[in-house]
Give the backbone structure.
Amino acid sequence: MSAQARQLRERLARRAGLALLAWSRRQEERRSTDAVTLRRQTEQDATRARDEQFRRLALGGAGLI
């Protein structure tokens, strides 16, 4: 294999590696954003459920006093 062909293969391999690395980083950023969104939604759902439970106890317990 000629030196010129080797250099071309090395450049192509380097570019492919950098492209894969950039893609991987973008995927990780997207997953991180999705995880934050999911965590926020779960926290909001838990807060609503807790508030609803408190409301039920407060209204149901009012007749006991």
About this structure: The chain has a mean pLDDT of 90.
